[in-house]
Specification:
It is a single chain. This protein is an all-alpha fold and 174 residues long. It is built from five helices and no strands.
Length: 174
């Protein structure tokens, strides 16, 4: 007896998941960049920063691929990347001189959990095809959440060891 081939089950997360993954990626890149260029950045913070940038760029690429394919590509690898990015962000809080913004890390953790839940939901119960209004709504919500987190990443990079903010020299007139 031969068994009939089983239809491969397509994992399709809700259409808002790739957009939230972009928000996760943007915050991860911003945290990483701030850790790399921060005043008094050490080797550990630069390595963690480069790792955060890599994870963030991966999340941005994954979100674009997910929308282009209209399915969830490599869901297990995506979950591993999310958890790695969240671990790196928490580790950035502990590095000297501690230049990671708590607000940005909290936002990254929240976005990461939302994406992970969406991926798991899409794996267990595939969602219908993408809806334009859902994508636009998700983009608006993610923008409202991510923009302040991006702003505080730069502020955290400009902090001096004593907690004062270093001035940004504009070199006007040169």
């Amino acid at each position: 007896m031969t068994e009939a081939p089983t239809a491969e089950r397509v994992s399709r997360a809700p259409s808002w998941v790739p957009v939230v993954a972009w928000g996760f990626g943007l915050v991860a890149v911003a945290l990483g960049a701030a850790a790399i260029v921060a005043v008094q950045a050490g080797t550990v913070s630069r390595v963690l920063g480069a790792s955060s940038v890599a994870v963030g760029l991966g999340a941005l690429a994954w979100g674009a691929t997910s929308l282009a394919l209209d399915r969830t590509p490599v869901p297990r690898a995506a979950l591993c990347g999310l958890f790695a990015g969240m671990g790196i962000a928490v580790a950035l809080l502990t590095t000297a001189p501690g230049r990671a913004s708590i607000l940005a890390v909290a936002m990254l953790l929240g976005l990461g959990v939302a994406v992970a839940c969406g991926i798991v939901q899409g794996t267990r119960h595939p969602s219908p095809r993408s809806n334009l209004w859902t994508l636009l709504s998700a983009a608006a919500v993610v923008t409202v959440l991510v923009v302040p987190a991006l702003g505080v990443c730069q502020g955290a990079a400009l902090l001096d060891a004593d907690g004062t903010v270093l001035p940004v020299v504009t070199h006007e007139g040169h």
